[in-house]
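User: I'm writing a short methods note and want a consistent example. For PC-Esterase, I'll paste the sequence; you return only the structure tokens, no commentary, since I'll be parsing the reply automatically.
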Amino acid sequence: MVGGVQLGVLAACVVLFVPMGMAGWHLSRNKMLFFSGALFITLAVGVHLTPYFPSIYDALSSLSSSVDRTSSRDSLLACDFQRLGRSDASDLLNGSWVVVAGDSQERLMALSLLSLVLDSDDMEVVKGDLFKRHSDYRIVMGQFGMKLDFIWAPYVANLTGLMTELKRNGNYPDVLVMGSGLWHMLHITNSSDYGVSLQLLRNLVVSLAPISPSLTGGSGSVSIRSPHFFWVGMPRLINSMLNTEEKRLKMSDAMLSAYDTELYQSKLLRQWGGGPLILLDVESLGRNCGTSCTVDGMHYDGIVYEAAVHVMLNALLIESHQKL
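Assistant:
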């Protein structure tokens, strides 16, 4: 947006350089000072009155916004980021086993993913079952062979237990989306303890063997496809909107920052330390969406999680070297 600051800078440049140019044309000193003063007053009044003339202000804002949108769109096209439709998402996930594990944030991620691949009639049934309090959920979409499991895992220790079970069974999903932190922050409120649990989870994920003994009993081995790992970051917490006094007290900005620091230092994330999990940055997405996108300062409108799902699907396209 072109605002008063930008216009003020422009006015200052005009006031400074135009009289200098006039001086170069050998005008008298008095004429130059008079013109400079008149020009300064005119531009100053114009800058301050511009916001009160909506047509002018809106035109400037519209022009700037148009340039910003064009630049953003060009950037997206340059990096091949795509907003996948139902058909493309179904093709990409055809035959896949997707596991989403965590708390209410991850449940909303599962909802957004299912909303992308299922029609509205099917989603009415899904919502009733998926949002049963503190419960697991499973669905098989026979039309394109995708299976999704939501595992209620509010603590990192629950995620570690899930990884241990998968490793013991030797059966891994194609896509594993997980996240945790809100429950720990509210009920334990100890960022150092959270960091230790993240380190244990990271060590377990890294230790997942890429090969396993052949089931035929021979001396060789067969390759196992490694899952695509994603971590759903904690959302932006708007303290004044949190719906209980306990949450407002324990889930402060300082505490959220401390928990985020432990996450980054754990080297669990690929973006921070080359870890095994790709971060889906819900906090940044929620911040960009704004306070109008949440009613409780913690859970955001579907558009935020939908955006995170598209980030995940684009990452899957890149990692699997596919084109739609």
